[in-house]
Amino acid sequence: MGRSLFGQLVRWPVDLATELVKVPSTLRSLRETLTVLPETIVRLEAQVAETTSVVNGTVPRIEGIAVQIGANIDGAVAVVDNIGGQIEPLQQSLDRVLPDVLRLVEVVDSKVQTIGADVSELSEALMVALRLIPGVRKSSRKP
């Protein structure tokens, strides 16, 4: 808590003397502050004026852009709706065609694998047949 009433009464002259001793320093600080205050206020006014000018120049441009966006929004919505209307039938067509395409790819893949196996068998049979012909073995080794 604080000092007792008696303690406050005893300390009062000391506290008063301390404050009186600080008066010149306080007055000096006050004079310094009051000396720079007008210049600081002028700088602050200039900054406020500059900021206000920038804001006043920018706001109309932003409002103009907002008006343009507002004017074009209906057209943009119509374009998006039109595109949406075209995408749905296209998606339905793809949904119908893709299973057939997948089956076709599977058939072609199977045929390619069969052709690969047939070519391997034919190659092996050809090599066997060539080994049976005299002189072919020697001529096939020459570069």
Please tell me about this protein's structure:
It is a single chain. With 143 residues, this protein is an all-alpha fold. It has one domain (5-141). It contains two helices and no strands. The chain has helices at residues 5-132, 136-141. The mean pLDDT is 87.
Radius of gyration: 49 Å
Number of strands: 0
Give start-end ranges of low-pLDDT stretches: none
- Whole-number total of structural domains: 1
Q: How large is the count of helical segments?
A: 2
Strand content: under 5%
Gross morphology is elongated
Question: Can you summarize this structure?
Answer:
This protein has 143 residues and is an all-alpha fold.
List keywords for this structure.
143 residues, mainly alpha, 0% strand
What topology does this entry show?
Elements (H helix, E strand, L loop, with lengths): L4 H128 L3 H6 L2
